[in-house]
Amino acid sequence: MKEVKRRNTRQRNVVLSVLKNTHSHPDAEWIYQEARKIIPNLSLGTVYRNLKILKDQGKIIEIKSEFSPSARYDAEVSPHGHFHCTTCDSIIDVHGVRSGDFIDETVLKGVGKVASFQVVFYGTCASCLSRNS
């Protein structure tokens, strides 16, 4: 399949910039509110469309969690995992997670080739633990 070339738009640049300037792994609504400070007439639909394009281009990661009703986004695309605090709903980057830690290539032989995967740990973050002790 041929990759569709997309022109770089101001809206897409702003969405990506907003995402790159936070470490909070926000949802689309938060990104929309922040981006509207720069482009007041920006629509939520435009934000969703641009998040999908950025994800398809490999410029951002979409994080889906069984404990969060909406997808969250991350502009850090290097290999890493996430820790989702089920108490405060924060998502924290976990570096040092390697695919070899989770994928045994011999098990997948004949099944297919892994293109990507996500590791999300669930629990209570250090901040919530210290608050509750």
Explained architecture:
The strands form two sheets. A three-stranded mixed β-sheet has the order 4-3-5, with no helix packed on it. It has a two-stranded antiparallel sheet with strand order 1-2. It has one domain (about 10-130): Orthogonal Bundle (Arc Repressor Mutant, subunit A), CATH 1.10.10. The mean pLDDT is about 90. The chain is built from five helices and five strands. It has helices spanning about 10-20, 30-35, 45-55, 105-110, 125-130, and strands spanning about 60-65, 70-75, 80-85, 90-95, 120-125. Helices cover about 30% and strands about 15% of the residues. The protein is flat. The chain has about 130 residues and is of the alpha+beta class. Helix 1 crosses helix 2 (about 30-35). It starts with 9 loop residues before the first helix and ends with a helix.
Beta-strand share of residues: 5-15%
The multimeric state of the shown protein is single chain
Distance between the termini: 55 Å
Low-confidence stretches: none
CATH superfamily: Winged helix-like DNA-binding domain superfamily/Winged helix DNA-binding domain
CATH architecture: Orthogonal Bundle
> Quick check: average pLDDT?
89
- What structural class is derived from the secondary structure elements? alpha+beta
- Going across the major beta sheet, what is the strand order? 4-3-5
Tell how many strands the DSSP assignment holds: 5
Order of helices and strands: HHHEEEEHEH
Give the gist of this structure:
With 133 residues, the chain is of the alpha+beta class. It has helices at 10-20, 28-35, 44-56, 105-108, 126-131, and strands at residues 61-63, 72-74, 81-85, 91-94, 120-123.
